[in-house]
Amino acid sequence: MTMKIASAEFSRGIKGTDAILADGVPEVAFVGRSNVGKSSLINSLVNRKDLVKTSNLPGKTTEINFFSINNKKCYFVDLPGYGYAKRSPKEKESIEKLILWYLMYSEAPIAKAVLILDVKAGMTDFDREMVRVLREHDHPLVIVANKADKLNQKEMSAQLRAIKEAAHEAVVVQYSATTATHKERDALLRIIFED
Description:
By secondary structure, the chain is of the alpha/beta class.
């Protein structure tokens, strides 16, 4: 897969089985709790402010959104955020079922799963569970410790160490969707697109 992102377009949102899953295009799945900056991270990677709608209200996304990168060289797949406290138990359950269906049963050709954490909050139980699911289903994983601009160097290295330990030495990259330079963005894209 190529690393330079020349184009990024919204393809469609799905809530279950769909032909897009079987069209053979490799998928990069972005997963994480509500409010970790998933939409901002994808926007930062494609160098667009508004490809993925960001909202001040976490938990707005309730379907799986597909974005075609470089005319279907791959899809960036934005999964709904999990663990949002203000959702009703029924809504929470249906969102979590949708995420797990996609990761475990949909047979989507997932080339890489990008688990996004709020570096300040570190690894939550939900995130640990997600790491377990991704590993069990052999999805190559990279963890992005987002909102890196919120910590100083000392706090950052302590948090990164704790995240790596909790994730059993997964690849962990610090990042800030709001302040990332071109160089940082390219470095993260390289890791995402590595086989």
